[in-house]
């Protein structure tokens, strides 16, 4: 159920997602697709309009760019029925907030959703949880208005990134440096860097050696946790 224009408000985005859900026009792992009956299907972001082929094309009036970039990973990473139910709740919260998502949502999500998952990920592998607990503490401080300086963020973030990249990249330390610097800036200066939450996915996909359903459950925790954080914003 596509329209000729792109949704410009969060309320309109919710209405389009709801209509697509009711009509059975949602699809995972593709922005848009024509089915055998000629119906136009779309993903959780694609429902905003036929020209939306990426997060960069999501209007800022609907949601901030950093959040839009997370939607495809959330939506595609869950069981389909769970993803559809999540999308309805997600867009309902965006509509309630009129698309205006505070930076505090990032700190809430990281402290109460991402970091606890990171602790579990490390405990399963009998790894130290010190690094992720330090990051969690900084996010909790930021939630009450005590934002740590950039150097403190970087010092806490670097070991965590080093752990995550160690098994995947030969240049793990270089990747850790780059990401720690970028995310330290984002958290210390209070802006939502477009990729400032990517390390959450590393923890979710850390279950890669487990069953697919376990990975889907991990992604559902990240996604539903984001909705819960949005719901806490007055």
Report what the structure shows.
The protein is mainly alpha-helical. The protein has two domains: 10-96, no CATH class; 104-231, no CATH class. The chain is built from ten helices and two strands. It has helices spanning 10-23, 65-68, 71-77, 80-96, 104-124, 130-143, 150-166, 172-189, 199-204, 212-231; strands at residues 32-34, 40-42. Helix 1 (10-23) runs antiparallel to helix 4, helix 5 (104-124) runs antiparallel to helix 10 and helix 7 packs antiparallel against helix 8. It is globular and about 55 Å long. Mean pLDDT is 83; it is low at 167-177 and 192-196.
Question: What key attributes describe this structure?
Answer:
single chain; mainly alpha; two-stranded antiparallel ribbon; 10 helices; 2 strands; 234 residues; 2 domains; 3% strand; 59% helix
Class by alpha and beta content: mainly alpha
The fraction of residues in strands falls at: under 5%
Backbone CA Rg: 18 Å
Largest sheet: 2 strands, antiparallel
Number of helices: 10
Total strands: 2
| H/E element order | HEEHHHHHHHHH
Strand order in the sheet with the most strands:
1-2
Query: First CA to last CA: what distance?
Result: 32 Å
Q: What spatial form do the alpha-carbon principal axes imply?
A: globular
Low-confidence stretches: 167-177, 192-196
Mean pLDDT equals: 83
| Number of discrete domains | 2
User: Helical amount among residues, as a percent range?
Assistant: 55-70%
């Amino acid at each position: 159920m596509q329209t000729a224009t792109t949704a410009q408000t969060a309320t309109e985005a919710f209405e389009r997602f709801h209509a697509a859900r009711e009509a059975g026009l949602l699809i995972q792992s593709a922005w848009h697709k024509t089915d055998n009956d000629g119906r136009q299907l779309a993903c959780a972001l694609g429902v905003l309009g036929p020209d939306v082929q990426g997060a960069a094309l999501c209007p800022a009036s609907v949601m901030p760019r950093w959040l839009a970039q997370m939607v495809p990973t959330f939506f595609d990473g869950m069981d389909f029925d769970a993803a559809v139910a999540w999308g309805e709740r997600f867009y309902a919260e965006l509509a309630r907030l009129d698309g205006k998502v505070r930076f505090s949502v990032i700190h809430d999500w990281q402290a109460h959703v991402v970091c606890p998952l990171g602790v579990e990920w490390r405990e399963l592998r009998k790894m130290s949880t010190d690094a992720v607990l330090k990051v969690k503490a900084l996010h909790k401080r930021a939630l009450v208005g005590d934002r740590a300086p950039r150097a403190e963020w970087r010092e806490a973030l670097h070991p965590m990134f080093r752990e995550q990249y160690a098994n995947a990249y030969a240049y793990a330390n270089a990747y850790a440096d780059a990401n720690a610097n970028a995310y330290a800036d984002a958290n210390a200066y209070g802006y939502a860097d477009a990729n400032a939450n990517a390390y959450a996915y590393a923890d979710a996909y850390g279950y890669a050696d487990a069953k697919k359903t376990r990975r889907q459950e991990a992604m559902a925790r990240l996604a539903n946790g984001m909705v819960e954080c949005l719901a806490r914003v007055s």
